[in-house]
Specification:
- There is one protein chain.
- The chain is an all-beta fold.
- It has one domain: Coagulation Factor XIII, Chain A, domain 1 (Distorted Sandwich).
- It has strands at about 15-20, 20-25, 35-40, 55, 60-70, 90-100, 105-115, 120-130, 155-165, 175-185.
- The strands form 3 sheets. A 5-stranded antiparallel β-sheet has the order 3-8-7-10-4, with no helix packed on it. It has a 3-stranded antiparallel β-sheet with strand order 5-6-9, with no helix packed on it.
- The radius of gyration is 16 Å and the shape is globular.
- The termini are far apart.
């Protein structure tokens, strides 16, 4: 089975990297795609080793969720609806979360799941909250934890994940779950 964990999307430098191909964007990006931890059948991927204490996941509340099928070529232009599983379409999951605890959270690992009509998971990837996307390894395999912005007690952050139509099986619903919560170092 091919290792697909190196396929990633990095739009902060105003480009999309996919399977080592670069596509320039002609817009200023105000929304970045989180880089997924992709696990194919029979293999698992894990985020980098925790640098902080792992806490109970109930300290994080997912306050809003949304999803849509969008056209990749126009993803950053605003509302760009696309046909589900259509050529050039991407499925985007996004939302907000809140730190209900009394201490800052360094980063959160989220599990994004695509479900069939019986509620079975047909695809699952891990990602980070928006202000901790630097925890995802770059092309050279390096993480940048020094660039992560902690979520203060009572603070909010966003999350997002993008699935390419041709890289996921058919699904009928989705969900996002908090997998790990890492407190800020004292």
């Amino acid at each position: 089975m091919a290792d697909r964990s190196r396929e990633r999307f990095d739009v902060w430098p105003a480009r999309i990297l996919r399977s080592r191909r670069t596509v320039s964007l002609a817009v200023v990006v105000t929304f970045a795609i989180v880089t997924p931890h992709v696990a194919t059948a029979g293999e698992t991927t894990k985020p980098p080793e925790p640098a902080t204490e792992v806490q109970a996941i109930n300290r994080i509340e997912i306050t809003s969720t949304a999803s849509s099928w969008d056209n990749l070529s126009e993803l950053f232009m605003g509302s760009t609806p696309a046909s589900p599983f259509g050529e050039g379409s991407v499925f985007v999951m996004r939302g907000e979360l809140r730190n209900k605890g009394d201490a800052p959270v360094q980063y959160i690992v989220l599990r994004y799941e695509l479900l069939d009509d019986k509620g079975n998971v047909v695809n699952s990837v891990e990602g980070f909250n928006r202000s901790a996307e630097q925890m995802r390894p770059d092309e050279e395999g390096h993480t940048h934890p020094q660039e992560v912005k902690a979520i203060p007690a009572g603070g909010v952050d966003s999350y997002r994940m993008v699935f390419f139509h041709d890289e996921v099986p058919r699904f009928t619903s989705q969900r996002v779950r908090v997998s790990e919560v890492h407190l800020e170092k004292k």
